[in-house]
Amino acid sequence: ELRKIEAALRAPSKFNIPSWMFNRRKDLETGRDMHLIGSDLELRIKQDIEFMKSIRSWKGWRHSLGLKVRGQKTRTTGRTGRTVGVQRKKVA
Predict the structure, then answer these.
(1) Which of 65, 78, 84 lies closest to 57, judged by CA?
(2) What's the pLDDT tens digit per position in 37-52?
(3) Which of 69, 70, 83, 87 is a Cys-bridge partner for 62, taking CB atoms 3.0 to 4.6 Å apart?
(4) Distance CA 87, CA 69 (A)
(5) Looking at the whole model, is its pTM more than 0.70?
(6) What is the DSSP string of the chain?
(7) pLDDT > 90: what percent of the chain?
(8) Rounded distance, CA 61 to CA 82, Å?
(9) How far apart are CA 28 and CA 51, in angstroms?
(10) What's residue 57's pLDDT?
């Protein structure tokens, strides 16, 4: 059973899994629907982000600045960096 599950993850189209469940639909280079797993998926995501940066798209700019990409608000959440602490008054 484990081998059958692994085979379905590697080639889901052979097991009649619909293309809307794949994690990479309409690849930029080939135009095919694929389902990537493991390090292949991580590598392809990095390549996509670098491509967005190189064409200077809005998402690429946001990725390079380390900000949120998908339209979320950034006023209060998603803050990174050092925090500013509050000092107590000295007792005389």
Answers:
(1) 65
(2) 888 888 888 988 898 8
(3) 69
(4) 35
(5) no
(6) -HHHHHHHHH-GGGGT--GGG-SB-S-TTT---B---THHHHHHHHHHHHHHHHTT-HHHHHHHHT---SS---SSSS--SPPPP-PPPPP-
(7) 11
(8) 23
(9) 10
(10) 92
pLDDT at 82 over 80: no
Q: Residues with Cβ < 8 Å from 51, sequence gap 6 or more?
A: 28, 60
Under 8 Å between Cβ of 36 and 44: yes
Q: In Å, how far are 82, 88, 89, 91 from 85, measured between CA atoms? A: 9, 10, 13, 19
Tokens linked to 6: 């692994």
Nearest Cα to Cα of residue 64 among 72, 52, 75: 52
pLDDT at 75: 84
Q: Where are the domains of the chain?
A: 1-35, 38-70
